[in-house]
Design goal:
This protein has helices spanning 6-30, 33-61, 73-86, 88-120, 122-136, 144-150, 154-179, 183-191, 196-230, 239-248, 252-280. It is mostly helical. Helix 3 crosses helix 11 (252-280), helix 4 (88-120) packs across helix 10 and helix 9 (196-230) packs antiparallel against helix 11 (252-280). The chain starts with 5 loop residues before the first helix and ends in a 6-residue tail after the last helix. The mean pLDDT is 83.
């Protein structure tokens, strides 16, 4: 039978107390707002870079894929920096952003009024449900032959394809947002003498602004995906063309760098939409 001396007991208590303090400090550090805001995203990015690096090493080590070794981050990041410093990124991105902007413009112009009509009129919603759902499920790229025949320019065809991809999220998000609005709001507005103009701009739009921007955010994600294959059509500018050109010239480091650019720009556009959603969010007080 062993006995514990007072000195050893005191030392053990001190050690346990220090461990508890360390865990408490670590817990406070992990839950600190700044850590949650910045450290977690950095960890996520670091994890993604490690996966990319491991994937590059695997490609380089495999004899069947070793010719694609430049996909790895070591060479791709060097090419990315070269594109950034040389100003090529503007030549690549601006035409694509113009096409995305044109496609989203027409998606909003067509989608928001249609969504309001569907949300306000049950008969219109019932009539359009089947045809709209049918059209929504058709891949936007399936319209490519039609777009080439109808439009005189490649840019027009690409904007059309982007619009076909983006119009449905805007339409349905607008309609669903309007259906959630309390009907009593419209009754109160009419009792106060509101005309159709007032109803639209002082009741409907403020109430569904967040839903509209949410639809635009979803539409942007779909349009950004459609953009790259759409730019394979015949244009000589844009991110999709740059990827195709890098593939044809076997510049895989440049190809990977352009993919990185597409991800960064897409993330930035999505973050802008998310910020607008937070700005237009409202909470109904009982």
């Amino acid at each position: 039978m062993t006995t514990q001396t007072p000195g050893s007991s005191t030392a053990l208590s001190a050690t346990m107390g220090g461990g508890v303090e360390l865990l408490t400090s670590l817990s406070k550090f992990i839950t600190h707002p700044l850590v949650k805001r910045y450290a977690y995203p950095i960890i996520g990015i670091g994890f993604l870079l490690v996966l990319w690096w491991l994937g590059g090493k695997w490609i380089a080590a495999n004899p069947d894929t070793s010719s694609f070794a430049d996909f790895g981050p070591e060479t791709a990041l060097v090419s990315f920096w070269s594109i950034l410093v040389g100003g090529e990124i503007l030549d690549m991105a601006l035409p694509s952003l113009m096409r995305i902007g044109g496609g989203l413009f027409w998606a909003i112009v067509l989608g928001v009024p249609t969504g309001i009509l569907i949300g306000r009129k049950p008969a219109v919603r019932a009539i359009t449900h089947v045809p709209f759902q049918f059209l929504r499920m058709i891949s936007p790229l399936s319209w490519m032959p039609v777009a080439v025949l109808v439009y005189d320019t490649w840019d027009g065809a690409i904007v059309f394809l982007i619009s076909m991809a983006a119009v449905w999220p805007v339409t349905f998000a607008t309609a669903n947002g309007l259906r959630k609005v309390d009907p009593s709001w419209f009754k109160v507005a009419r009792n106060l003498g509101a005309k159709s103009y007032h109803m639209l701009f002082y009741v409907i739009f403020p109430a569904i602004a967040m839903d509209i921007i949410t639809g635009i955010r979803l539409a942007l994600g779909v349009a950004w995906i459609v953009l790259v294959p759409a730019e394979y059509l015949g244009v000589t500018s844009g991110l999709g063309y740059s990827i195709n050109d890098a593939r044809d010239t076997l510049e895989y480091d440049r190809l990977a760098a352009i993919v990185l650019i597409i991800g960064i720009i897409g993330f930035a556009l999505d973050s802008i939409c998310l910020l607008l959603i937070k700005r237009t969010a409202w909470v109904r007080n009982d």
